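Data deposition worksheet. Section B asks for the primary sequence of the deposited chain exactly as it was used as input, without tags or linkers unless they were present during the calculation. Section C holds the resulting structure in token form. Section D is free text for depositor observations; keep each observation to a single sentence. Incomplete worksheets are returned to the depositor.
Section A, Depositor: J.P.
Section B:
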Amino acid sequence: MRTAIVLFARSPEREAAEKRMRFAAPLFRALVASWLDAARCHGATPVVACAAADRDALASIAPDIEREWIEQRGATFGERAARASADAFARGFDAIVLAAIDAPPRDLREIFASLERGIPAISPSRDGGINCIGLVAPEAELLAQFTPRRRDLVQLCRRYFARLAIVAGTIDVDNERALAIAKRDRAWRAFLSQTPPAQPRNRATAQPGHAIQSASRGPPVNV
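Section C:
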């Protein structure tokens, strides 16, 4: 079975800026590295789906890991995700895991085992979204309905698929509040154990997250 992890990504700097957490760019860089390494560990092909402007920044992360590239196309998040999935399957993959870079890889063995049986799988986020989705077909109709921070994606996937595997999930980091919750989550421990609490924005000396270190390879995680 030929599989891929399709990393639906912006550059770490743009990801951090979009989420108003510029200090967290090294964190997102480490997450990208961990997903690339997870693909290699599972014998899957890493495929990065990004805008052309982000390619150089993403290519600089874990440069020793070979990867394929897909250019994101579409007016909406859902349309871009659907097209990235379709483009990946058009390259001959039998199954893909479509993932973002705001949560670490987790329980991928279970996801790939489910895909081997022909059963789609999701890793849910605590807010009702999903961290990643494993597919055995492009599922453009489903992915086109995905929007950032949508809170009922788990229910949407349950209704859409006749059979669906749900593995353990974690929180995805969309803001500083989510980052504070992630620090208490085992899945995030390798990334955030040395990160100090974010300090109030109105303090002149506040430098939230400065202990997050830059990384070209992410820390080991439960994959």
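Section D:
Residues 202-211 have pLDDT under 50 and may be disordered.
The chain is about 35% helix and 15% strand.
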